[in-house]
Amino acid sequence: MVDQKKAYLFALAAVLFWSTVASAFKLSLRTLTPAELLLYAGLTSTLVLGLILLVQGKLGEALTGPGKQYGRALKLGLLNPFLYYLILFKAYDLLPAQEAQPLNYTWAITLTLLSIPLLKQKISGKEIAAVVVSYVGVVVISTRGAFFRLHFTNPFGVALALGSTVIWALYWIYNTRDGRDPVVALFQNFFFGALFILAYCALTSQLRLPPYQGLLGAVYVGVFEMGITYVLWLQALRLSENTAKVGNLIFLSPFLSLVFIHFLVGETIYPSTYAGLLLIVAGLFIQRFGAGMLRRKSPR
């Protein structure tokens, strides 16, 4: 059933929530380690997704599916949420939020590059241009405008932020052959991902009762980054006349995110951040309308 007005409302709500999470990451990491943030956020998201499936009447499907579903969920859960968010949160721990957020936003460009060897897709001239423009933006942000000197303020943090895009892109490439209901799949993946992170925290002695500020932040991340927002986005796509009408709204997210980062985290936004982000978004815009783009249901 098409309802474009509702589709826009769901999509805008998802964009608004996703625009706040970079600030939530950074604020939570003031009192939590990256692993702790992932542990409590992952447990929260698993609970939220389970409740959504219960309301939808699909929880039984998630819990009693064939064994091969759980094998797939085990592998994908290792990628996301475990490896992806562990690397991403460490990047946020090392970098200002205004740098980590736009760098992570290049995952769609990474997806295009990885689809060439893994999915045997051909890359068009427009997509090559998109890659070049976006990664010029990455350099501008990472060097804080010292483009020609190539002096990176935190090379390891930049490497982690870009590395997280590889994990996320691999996750979505392997999802192309996943026939499970999207919410069921996400719940199962996060269930196994939560087991991975619980084991990781136990092995690294990071199991403790966290400060309430950090715990509240982790719960927020679990609800609005990993849980309900994804379902809102899927609902927007389902109700829309076509995916492009709501898909293009995601370009608002990184700019709104800078507003929240400035006012909530207290970061002064560098001119180089605006310039680099404009280049990254320009590259994504070119890519979106380029031939052969691998389109996904999630903008994250």
Overview of the molecule:
The chain is mainly α and 300 residues long. It has one domain. It is built from 14 helices and no strands. The protein has helices spanning 4-28, 34-56, 59-63, 67-94, 97-104, 107-119, 125-142, 155-174, 182-203, 212-224, 228-239, 243-247, 253-265, 271-288. Helix 2 packs across helix 10 and helix 5 (97-104) runs antiparallel to helix 13. The radius of gyration is 19 Å and the shape is globular.
Mean pLDDT: 88
Helix-strand sequence: HHHHHHHHHHHHHH
Count of distinct strands: 0
Largest sheet geometry: none
The structure class reads mainly alpha
As residue ranges, the low-confidence spans are 291-296
Number of helices: 14
Strand content: under 5%
Helix content: over 70%
- N-end to C-end Cα span: 25 Å
Kindly provide the radius of gyration, computed on alpha-carbon positions and rounded to a whole number of angstroms. 19 Å
Q: What is the total domain count?
A: 1
Instruction: Categorize the overall geometry.
Output: globular
